[in-house]
Amino acid sequence: MLLELRIKNFAIIEALNLEFKPGLIILTGETGAGKSIIMGALDMLLGQRVDMTTLRKGSEFASVEAVFKIPQSVKAPIIQLLEKEEILEGSDYVTLTRELRKDKRNTARVNGHRTNVGVLVELGEYLVDIHGQSEHLSLMRVNQHLGLLDRFSDTTDLLSKYQGVYSKLKVIQAELNRLRQSDLEGEKKKELLVFQVDEIEQAGLEEGEEQNLVDRRTRLANAEKLADLSQNILILLDDAPGHQPTVMDLLGQIVSSVEDLSKTDPGLAALNDKTGELSEGLFEVGKDLRSYLESLEFDPDELENVQGRLELIRDLQRKYGDTIPEIIAYQNRSQKELSEITGRGDRIKELEGLESRLLEELSRRGNELSRGRKQGALVLASELETQLNDLKMAGSRFEVDFKFREDPRGVLIEEGQRIAYYSDGLEKVEFLIDNCKLGIPVNKNPDFIPESKNLEFRNAWSTWRNRCTSGPGIKNECSRTYNLVHLHLSVTGKGKSSNWCG
Predict the structure, then answer these.
(1) Burial readout 206-221 (b: 16 or more C-beta within 10 A, e: otherwise)
(2) Cα radius of gyration (the chain)
(3) 3-state secondary structure of 29
(4) How far apart are CA 374 and CA 376, in angstroms?
(5) Exposure winner among 218, 233, 318, 327, fewest CB in 10 A?
(6) Cβ(102)–Cβ(61) under 8 Å?
């Protein structure tokens, strides 16, 4: 239960202290007395967004403070919240404070402890229910007006067709942006990729080449040693100096003796076969060694070439992979990426052509939608002004203000200029009202001021809109009308002469 409410420098209130007792309390007063301002102050206390227009003229700060007795029905969650935030100062009462300073600093306190506005919002959900006057009406919310106008004008089908084209266009533009960004990065990388692909390609690498080169280098580097060893083996086999017997001579004697043995003892036939195979094997060994010896060469130039080739492979391995297969795989990936970069320009041109065609279609759909909305706006204004006359508000004017924003990258409209386009059309709309005839000052050069920004006129404006929305025709028609718009009230500033009407 709200026990005390203290307001300072809020809108037209300099200082106000209110004490409340249990039961029904009604605050009454004539238009402009400040009843809605009290509710606005309570809204600020409970966490709603506020701006500098809530500061009383000439004041450095505005503050609102309230003391609540915690209802038994919500005591448990409130105590839990206060304990969580470490701001509990008793279980029966809670004090909320919010202060707004001219330097835009915003301070929230609970029980004297600084906290964030979110805590005020959460506590307010337990402590207060506010039922604002006509706050539920979409007519009062600018961002609803275009939708209302479409429903009133029966242009929802046109809007649906427009949005279908718009969605396709945004998909194309998203891909274009991605490709263009990639294209910028790709151009920087293209030169490197070309170099890398060419370097690997010119090397002409083959799988298994590295081991063959290592073996080749070993033979070339040890050719003389290998030749000496081979020659020594051949000498022992069948080329011993002087009258020294060779291995083949001795083996021939062994073969002949075993052959004689096998003739005497047929059981040694297998042994005879083995010695024969041994003789033939050594003969092949000698034959192969001679061929090997003939192939050996000591060529410093060839050795240098092989060494250079191996160094090239080592260099490529440091850059692109530990093995030749890995280097070749890197080359293939780079070649693919290079092809994508090269072909990206063609894809961009293709998408730019599609974007251009979609912009033309969007322009056609958007212009058609705008014409339908403007026709509907004229009908809406005429019907509303008729209803206002029936409500004894003769002379009031209603207008739907169409706002277009020039954009050289936008779509072409019928007037020949390029304008920005949005997901809901080519325009933003705003509902304007003039000559309210409700006791509000009327200036000969009316300056439309948003009702949401001028607390001093909220009461009169609320009275006006209640009369507007209470009319049978207006209630029925406006409930299916409008999107981005502001209801504005024609008023004069303080100190200016004005006429009161109504």
Answers:
(1) eeeebeebeebbebbe
(2) 48
(3) coil
(4) 5
(5) 318
(6) yes
Structure tokens at 285: 């060994």
Tokens representing 265 are 């003892």
* DSSP-based three-state secondary structure for 233: helix
**3-state SS of 314-348?**
HHHHHHHCCCHHHHHHHHHHHHHHHHHHHHHHHHH
Order of strands, edge to edge, in the sheet holding 428-434? 397-403, 428-434, 488-491, 447-450
Question: Residue holding tokens 């086999």?
Answer: 237
Angle between helices 156-203 and 145-153 (to 10 degrees): 120
Residue 268 has phi, psi (to 5 degrees) of -95, 15
pLDDT in tens, 363-399: 999 999 999 999 999 999 898 888 878 777 777 788 8
Does the pLDDT value for residue 198 go beyond 80? yes
The Cα 209–Cα 161 span in angstroms is 65
Report which of residues 454 and 296 the model is more confident about: 296
Report d(CA 185, CA 178) in Å as an integer.
11
With b for 16 or more beta-carbon neighbours within 10 A and e for fewer, the 156-188 pattern comes to eebbeebbebbeebeebeeebeebeeebeebee
CB 423 within 8 A of CB 369: no
Residue 16, classed as helix, strand or coil, is strand
In this structure, which amino acid lies at residue 494? K
Residue 207: what are its φ and ψ, rounded to 5°? -60, 135
pLDDT digits (tens, 9 = 90+) for 43-57: 899 888 887 888 888
Under 8 Å between Cβ of 104 and 34? no
Q: Which amino acid is at 41?
A: A
Q: What is the mean pLDDT of residues 115-127?
A: 89
**Which letter does DSSP use for residue 142 in this model?**
G
Which residues contact residue 127 at a Cβ distance below 8 angstroms, ignoring those fewer than 6 apart?
2, 68, 70, 71, 74, 78, 94
* C-alpha to C-alpha distance for 156 and 422, rounded to whole angstroms: 15
Token code pair at residue 113: 């402890």
Spatial distance between the Cα atoms of 66 and 19, rounded to a whole number of angstroms: 10
Calpha distance 426→363 (Å, rounded) = 8
Q: Residue 368 and residue 362: Cα distance in Å, rounded? A: 10
The two three-digit tokens of residue 354, written as one number? 């599609």
The tokens 């003892």 sit on which residue?
265
Give the dihedral sign, CA 53/56/62/68.
Answer: negative
Q: Say which residue the tokens 């070649």 belong to.
A: 335
Global pTM value? 0.44
Q: How confident is the model at residue 138 (pLDDT cuts 50, 70, 90)?
A: low
The reported pLDDT for the residue numbered 448 is 43
b/e map 132-143, b = 16+ CB within 10 Å: ebeeebbbbbbe
